[in-house]
């Protein structure tokens, strides 16, 4: 503890956490302005707190977060570069949106091309992660092996004849929002892409549902939020294996998602 | 939805996540120097390094993936737009990002305006989250220390740091005297620092 004129360590720690009342904060601030020793103590407390913060369990970023960020910095830095961004793998979502809907191979050809692009970006990410995690511990190696298995599932979902391919549309309208699902029940492997999705408030998310053919309850198949162009994707969400689908549907849920769909189903297809 | 997107109830009940998002060479200073020149690839490299950590801290506080992503964007877009201001005597860039992620999240949680003092956060140069191997060992040690704290200390630190409660609010919530709450938080941080220095 410092001398009587200094701020007690207790209060400096609370100040560092912004956990003092406004009046107390002002008093501490006034002292810090003139006391290098207490500023140093706050700095050290912040160092401790950074460690506390960094000790949280890492969570995966939402689908498309990286692309959304890249669009932000692409737009902010130079408009000219945004026309050139198709050369960057991570901008594949934007590229997909721009692709003609009716290619030579029709919708399935479009979907396969789109999925291939996602796959390329996804592989690039995996490669990046692999390089990043060379020093990581054994459990991570196990995780990466699991991801490699999922890559095989993805390939099978794209190529297998038994993969179910479904196009989702909004009610009776000829409205723009559309989703495309490719699903391989035996592997529980699903690739879903959506276009022209309407933006959501930050406390909401779209949730994809698998409606099983055997009449059991809808299975949550991933959360997604559209990017600035209205595009979104769900690639290989955690799904049980061996559940043939009768249909797929999309609902709007609170941001953490739901275990049962909240009506109405805004897009569906079977 | 995948279980791993659900915010853990007990932040200290875990042991498997050492290692985590990588940092390491090239050094963050070199990356920031490239960002100053408008190098988008360098900014994306910074994103890949730190976004998961910023996101995880924000999600831990806000319990809302959309809002947590907003925090990531807000902070890193700010780095992109004004990188020169980060190449100063702030100490570790990674540690700075963690503290700012927490502060911005608490601000949002409490619907406050962004803290005015937030960008003036100055960290000791010794808080270096940049080296992958050191970082992984260090964070594992941090978790062990936090897990080993008396429950009341853990709880007080948790409420102040991750839930953004003031010491008065914590005292009201736990029914403990104000001085006790303050002491617990200080003791928790002191134990952590001692353990990390040993
Ligand atoms: Zn002082």
UniProtKB/TrEMBL annotation, chain A:
<dbReference type="Pfam" id="PF10099">
    <property type="entry name" value="RskA_C"/>
</dbReference>
<dbReference type="GO" id="GO:0016989">
    <property type="term" value="F:sigma factor antagonist activity"/>
</dbReference>
<dbReference type="GO" id="GO:0006417">
    <property type="term" value="P:regulation of translation"/>
</dbReference>
<dbReference type="InterPro" id="IPR041916">
    <property type="entry name" value="Anti_sigma_zinc_sf"/>
</dbReference>
<keyword id="KW-0812">Transmembrane</keyword>
<keyword id="KW-0472">Membrane</keyword>
<keyword id="KW-1133">Transmembrane helix</keyword>
<dbReference type="InterPro" id="IPR027383">
    <property type="entry name" value="Znf_put"/>
</dbReference>
<dbReference type="Pfam" id="PF13490">
    <property type="entry name" value="zf-HC2"/>
</dbReference>
<keyword id="KW-1003">Cell membrane</keyword>
<feature type="transmembrane region" description="Helical">
    <location>
        <begin position="104"/>
        <end position="124"/>
    </location>
</feature>
<feature type="domain" description="Anti-sigma K factor RskA C-terminal">
    <location>
        <begin position="111"/>
        <end position="264"/>
    </location>
</feature>
<dbReference type="GO" id="GO:0005886">
    <property type="term" value="C:plasma membrane"/>
</dbReference>
<protein>
    <recommendedName>
        <fullName>Regulator of SigK</fullName>
    </recommendedName>
</protein>
<dbReference type="InterPro" id="IPR051474">
    <property type="entry name" value="Anti-sigma-K/W_factor"/>
</dbReference>
<feature type="domain" description="Putative zinc-finger">
    <location>
        <begin position="10"/>
        <end position="39"/>
    </location>
</feature>
<dbReference type="InterPro" id="IPR018764">
    <property type="entry name" value="RskA_C"/>
</dbReference>
UniProtKB/TrEMBL annotation, chain B:
<dbReference type="InterPro" id="IPR039425">
    <property type="entry name" value="RNA_pol_sigma-70-like"/>
</dbReference>
<dbReference type="Pfam" id="PF04542">
    <property type="entry name" value="Sigma70_r2"/>
</dbReference>
<dbReference type="InterPro" id="IPR014284">
    <property type="entry name" value="RNA_pol_sigma-70_dom"/>
</dbReference>
<keyword id="KW-0805">Transcription regulation</keyword>
<feature type="region of interest" description="Disordered">
    <location>
        <begin position="1"/>
        <end position="23"/>
    </location>
</feature>
<feature type="domain" description="RNA polymerase sigma factor 70 region 4 type 2">
    <location>
        <begin position="140"/>
        <end position="191"/>
    </location>
</feature>
<dbReference type="InterPro" id="IPR007627">
    <property type="entry name" value="RNA_pol_sigma70_r2"/>
</dbReference>
<dbReference type="GO" id="GO:0003677">
    <property type="term" value="F:DNA binding"/>
</dbReference>
<dbReference type="InterPro" id="IPR013324">
    <property type="entry name" value="RNA_pol_sigma_r3/r4-like"/>
</dbReference>
<keyword id="KW-0804">Transcription</keyword>
<dbReference type="Pfam" id="PF08281">
    <property type="entry name" value="Sigma70_r4_2"/>
</dbReference>
<keyword id="KW-0731">Sigma factor</keyword>
<dbReference type="GO" id="GO:0016987">
    <property type="term" value="F:sigma factor activity"/>
</dbReference>
<comment type="similarity">
    <text>Belongs to the sigma-70 factor family. ECF subfamily.</text>
</comment>
<dbReference type="InterPro" id="IPR013325">
    <property type="entry name" value="RNA_pol_sigma_r2"/>
</dbReference>
<dbReference type="InterPro" id="IPR013249">
    <property type="entry name" value="RNA_pol_sigma70_r4_t2"/>
</dbReference>
<feature type="domain" description="RNA polymerase sigma-70 region 2">
    <location>
        <begin position="46"/>
        <end position="113"/>
    </location>
</feature>
<protein>
    <submittedName>
        <fullName>RNA polymerase sigma-70 factor (ECF subfamily)</fullName>
    </submittedName>
</protein>
<dbReference type="InterPro" id="IPR036388">
    <property type="entry name" value="WH-like_DNA-bd_sf"/>
</dbReference>
<dbReference type="GO" id="GO:0006352">
    <property type="term" value="P:DNA-templated transcription initiation"/>
</dbReference>
